[in-house]
Amino acid sequence: MEKGALDCSLHPVDMHAHLPWWARDPGRAGGILVDAWREACIEAGLVIAVEPSIRLFRSNVDERRVYNALGEYMDLVALSRIPMLTNLVYKTRDALEEHVDFLREHTRTTEEVLEAARLHPEIIPVASYNPDLGVDGNISRLRRVLDKIIGVKIFPTLHFIRPNHGSLSKLYRELEGRGKIVIVHTGCDPGVWELPSLCSHARPSLVEDAARRHRDLVFVVAHLGSYSALTPGIFFHEAVKALSRDNVYADTSAVDPYFVRLAVEESGWDKILFGSDYPYVTGTKPADWVREISLLDIPGKAKEAILRGNAARLLRSLGPPAPRL
Ligand SMILES: [Zn+2]
Q1: 4: phi > 0 → left, psi -120 to 50 → alpha, else beta; which?
Q2: Which residue, among 315, 45, 148, has the nearest Cα to 324 in the 3D structure?
Q3: Which of 63, 113, 221, 281 counts the highest number of beta carbons within 10 A?
Q4: 84 CA distance to ligand 1 centroid (A)?
Q5: Measured in angstroms, how far is the CA atom of residue 42 from the centroid of ligand 1?
Q6: How far apart are CA 306 and CA 121, in angstroms?
Q7: Which residue would you say has higher pLDDT here, 77 or 182?
Q8: Residue 15 C-alpha to ligand 1 middle, in angstroms?
Q9: How far, in Å, is the centroid of ligand 1 from the Cα of 16?
Q10: Dihedral (C-alpha) 290, 294, 297, 300: value to the nearest 10 degrees?
Q11: 47-97 confidence digits (pLDDT tens)
C-alpha cells in the first residue's frame, strides 16, 4: 500500500461515531456521516446519541466550582489557546452560558439516531443515557427500543455520574445477558470537563468495577481513557488494566495513535475497536483515522483486527440490530 493511500479491501467498522450536529434533520445528518464513511471504505458503524442535561450542568457547575477546579491548572488553561477553556479563566460567567449553548446545540437524541438508522442501514444505533429521565425512566425507554439499539452510552462527564454508581446497576441488569453493550466515555471532555477534577468520574477503573459486577454485559472503554487536551493519556494505564477483564473492550476514538500503539504493546489487540468519533475531532474525517491505524508500527494482523475483525466478532456475539459482518 502506498503511503497515505487507503486499503479498501478491509471494509472497516466504525465503533464510535455521532450524527453531525449542524444538520438538524436526522436523515440529512445520517447521509453526511455515511458519505464520510464511504470515503474511508467503512461498511457500517455505531452511531451514538448524545443527551446531556442542562439542569444537571447548572446545578453542578458554577463560578466557584470552576475556580476551585482550575487550581494548579490555571496557567496551563490560560495559555491553552482553546477559547472554551481560556474563557473559563477570563470570562467565567459568559463561558458557563457558552457551555449551555454548546450542550443544547450538540444534543442528538436517541430518537433522532433511530430515525437516521431507519433511513441509512449502515447505521447501528446506540442510545444515550438521559439523566433527566432518572434510572427508571431510562429503563422504560430502553425497553421500548431494545430491539432497535445495540446498547447505551453513559457520559460520566456530561452526566455527572460514576459508571459504577449503584443506581446504574439496575440499568445494567436490564441489559445484561441480552446481547447489548454499554459504552462509557472515559478521559476528559471539551470545556470545563478538561479540568481533571471535573473528569474524575470518567476513569476506566470505575468501568472495570462495573464490568466486574456485571459479567454478562460487555463494556467499552471509549477513548482508551486517554482523551485530554491538557494531559493526553490521562487515564491510559487504567484502560489497559480494565482490558484484562473478558467483558471489557476499548475504542480508539479521538485517541492519539501513539496510545493505540502502546495499548497494542501492553494489552494485545483482541479487544481494541476502531472508532472515528466523527464529527467531534475538529479537522478530521473517518478516512484520516483509518489511515492513522493503517500506518501504525504494529503487526498487519493487529491492524485488521482493530479496523474490522474485533468489531465483526463482537457484533456477531450480540443480538439484533447487530448486522452480520
Ligand atoms: Zn464520541
Answers
A1: left
A2: 315
A3: 221
A4: 18
A5: 17
A6: 22
A7: 182
A8: 10
A9: 6
A10: 130
A11: 999 999 999 999 999 999 999 999 888 888 888 888 888 999 889 999 999
**25 CA distance to ligand 1 centroid (A)?**
19
**Are the beta carbons of 266 and 240 closer than 8 angstroms?**
yes
C-alpha cell at 292: 492513522
Residues at Cβ < 5 Å from ligand 1 ion: 277
Q: What distance in angstroms lies between residue 251's CA and the mean position of ligand 1's atoms? A: 10
- Integer CA distances (angstroms), 185 to 37, 42, 73, 154, 317, in order: 22, 22, 22, 6, 22
- Residue % of the chain over a pLDDT of 70: 98
The DSSP H or E segment spanning 220 is: strand 218-222
For the stretch 296-320, pLDDT in tens is: 999 999 999 999 999 999 999 998 8
What are the angstrom distances between the C-alpha of 147 and each of 118, 129, 175, 245, 316?
Answer: 13, 17, 11, 27, 15
pTM above 0.85, yes or no: yes
Between 3.40.50.300, 3.40.50.10860, 3.20.20.140, 1.20.81.30, what CATH number should domain 10-51+111-317 receive? Answer: 3.20.20.140
Q: What is the dihedral of CA 173, 174, 175, 176, to 10 degrees?
A: 40
